[in-house]
Amino acid sequence: MNRSINVTIWNEYRHEKTNEKVASIYPEGMHKAIADGLAVTGTVRTATLDEPEHGLTDDVLASTDVLVWWGHMAHDEVNDEIVERVRQRVLRGMGLIVLHSGHFSKIFKKLMGTSCDLKWREADEKERIWIVNPGHPIADGLGEYIELPHEEMYGEHFDIPQPDELVMVSWFEGGEVFRSGCCYTRGMGRIFYFRPGHETYPTYFNPEIRKVINNAVQWTAPVDREYPRYGHAQPLETIKGIQA
Amino acid sequence: MNRSINVTIWNEYRHEKTNEKVASIYPEGMHKAIADGLAVTGTVRTATLDEPEHGLTDDVLASTDVLVWWGHMAHDEVNDEIVERVRQRVLRGMGLIVLHSGHFSKIFKKLMGTSCDLKWREADEKERIWIVNPGHPIADGLGEYIELPHEEMYGEHFDIPQPDELVMVSWFEGGEVFRSGCCYTRGMGRIFYFRPGHETYPTYFNPEIRKVINNAVQWTAPVDREYPRYGHAQPLETIKGIQA
Amino acid sequence: MNRSINVTIWNEYRHEKTNEKVASIYPEGMHKAIADGLAVTGTVRTATLDEPEHGLTDDVLASTDVLVWWGHMAHDEVNDEIVERVRQRVLRGMGLIVLHSGHFSKIFKKLMGTSCDLKWREADEKERIWIVNPGHPIADGLGEYIELPHEEMYGEHFDIPQPDELVMVSWFEGGEVFRSGCCYTRGMGRIFYFRPGHETYPTYFNPEIRKVINNAVQWTAPVDREYPRYGHAQPLETIKGIQA
Amino acid sequence: MNRSINVTIWNEYRHEKTNEKVASIYPEGMHKAIADGLAVTGTVRTATLDEPEHGLTDDVLASTDVLVWWGHMAHDEVNDEIVERVRQRVLRGMGLIVLHSGHFSKIFKKLMGTSCDLKWREADEKERIWIVNPGHPIADGLGEYIELPHEEMYGEHFDIPQPDELVMVSWFEGGEVFRSGCCYTRGMGRIFYFRPGHETYPTYFNPEIRKVINNAVQWTAPVDREYPRYGHAQPLETIKGIQA
Fold first, then answer.
1. Considering only CA atoms, which of D59, B44, C137 is closest in space to residue A190?
2. Is residue A234 part of a domain?
3. pTM of the entire structure?
4. Smallest Cβ distance to D118: which of C91, C187, C230?
5. What residue stretches are annotated with the ThuA-like domain (chains A, B, C, D) (predicted)?
6. Is residue D191 part of a domain?
7. Measured between CB atoms, which of D123, D186, D228 is closest to C235?
8. How far apart are CA A53 and CA A75, in angstroms?
9. Residue C18 and residue C34: Cα distance in Å, rounded?
10. CATH number at residue B97
11. Model confidence over B155-178: pLDDT tens digits?
């Protein structure tokens, strides 16, 4: 597929500046690694927390088809008005891909309505991400599972609304499972939550993980249609003498 | 069924005090009519906007299995802290039945994550609520449809997440359709949105409408289990020398 | 989008030969009108009931990405082995678009598992197909609804499994509603049921109806991946001395 | 809850007669162990493959609210007419609980429309069944997971339609995951697939497994309403001079 899709990758970009291990894996930031993995014909831009308006100005969002979100230690520093600005864009059709610890971001929690809480553990353990919906576009080109030798564990119960479509379920060495690839539509916007990507592992260089993110960009890209009209409506048919 | 279920009916209770037509239909308030229609073995209480804490104290909520919500003209006057208090209860298992104009209540919007907007028209028109999931417990004891001779119209697009289960779809004389009976689970709580019930019609005296609300009380009643544990977790299996 | 997609349009092609009104609307068959409305970069072929193997040989199906199905008066004449052949292709990823009276085709009933029964009436009545999921790819480029001045009525209850995604709901002049645009995944195959298209109306010349079918071709087109492996499996991890 | 529900437990009942290990665990048959675990106020009956009409006469089915199904080595010996008889009952509201290897039964495959295939392995491995929908009635009274020290492995991809509600996901020691507790509605009937229960393990004596089956009996029990009317319908509203 070669639709032109404009992607903006938002990264908190803090761990990379303060943690040597993270900096050694992602010297230019996780957003750079994610951007390098994208194969789209439109633009690929990045934005980070410490830029003015977190890099998410009205202009940037207006020209964004799909927004990718990675955040972790500074969710609370994201300005509520900007969160609402992003949410309004999603409801109007902008795609949103929420990665890993973004499960606790303000934008994801606000769109889901639940706590988005989960179990976690950092123990360098093996993760195997099984495809449970092999006909889904986000599973295009993948094998039966993606194996990551070392990742942070996320375990159920994951407090999310039941996904409209569940594409992936993870197995963890330490004994847990997790719904790792979850599709939603909210308003006109499509949302994909994708679990892997702890900052201390080179997950976003993995070709299969990159393939998933590329597929998700295609899947979340907006349709071309007007926002619905809401509010007071004239009848379309005649009712008791009210002219339609 | 005769599980003991404690129900609290929350009503804004403003139209009844200021509008003669509404007062003549619901002289003791819409909450009273809804309460009179319930057939449960537990308690039935009511609470209204102008009571202290809107009648929704911690104690009241702690002893509520299912909360029914009707609001319209004063959504904005509902205190945000109390909205969050209700939401936390829902996530922990309290059932929530949102009626008619409650689609725009803070609690429903916060749990859905979308705008919850829709089309509307007041034209005394006929509504026919078709059952599209006849095996669902909320359809128990009903015919193929419920016909209301006069109601306010609500039309699509209704900006809600796709329901986990869609039970009813309305036909309106003026030319619109609407997803009128929508089931959700959020956290451990079950939510049912039910469309009819404009304040200027005696809808909540209708035996079939009352049947639906009774069914929904049964369906949204909580299970008996602990809230999941979230946060840091020890491994259940041995990982690389970490003792499970 | 310009993925190359090979489409085969299957038509029963009986009404056109025996009914003057139908012949006057669709002189070359309904399949020809549907084919003329497609805008794909791959091949567009047609197949009909009275061809050998109904035109659905192994070779034809092997080179078909999306199969469109219209049948009505001769569902029973479709050979069971060919139905199973089509079903196996769907489970392996071939898209299937089932039109109108195809709701009672052997292939749709076999894939759904339910009776697929419904209410119907031929009364030249108005249909208005409302979009209830405006962000869905099948809603791309459409307005808020599609209005057809005259169509056969199909009414609820429609005995289908709850759609994975419900995109459209019809309003009918005579008082009924119908879930008109329904998305399913079965195996690796995606299925879209689309209601309109009675043989006595020129529905398949309508540009908006054609737009929906084009969108559905894109949506049902298969992913590029292997069929999952089933059956006996060796462990991936060591279990009690069994070497993984 | 104490609704009166009449349950019939169907068991293939072959392994118990030919395999010493199975006979030692289930000397009176698996159906007897499942029946002993039920706590319902209605009747509990059993039926087996080698009885006339497999024990599933019209009379038996007419007085059955919920049918439980266990089969494995002799799926093909189940008469097609009786399978269709059961399916018709399900579509008219009878609940169906399909256990373990019943995934490959004729009745389950016919209701699902897919191959219902999966991966499997007999290696005495540990299974941990995680609850992913803790507010669901089938999760009532359970902890966060059910642990079975030894079970047969079933692994993804499990070729089923996406469940209407997914309640449980299994973790297996050998590296796989599986959607183990799956809810469907087909026609008016509710269906629950529950994974565990290989014949060589005493799984149906496990109190938590028995709790799940009891919960599922409550959840699948039919509503009290008429079967919908299908076929030709008179208009409910006036259309162009046709009297409603």
1. C137
2. no
3. 0.98
4. C230
5. 6-220
6. yes
7. D123
8. 14
9. 20
10. 3.40.50.880
11. 999 999 999 999 999 999 999 999
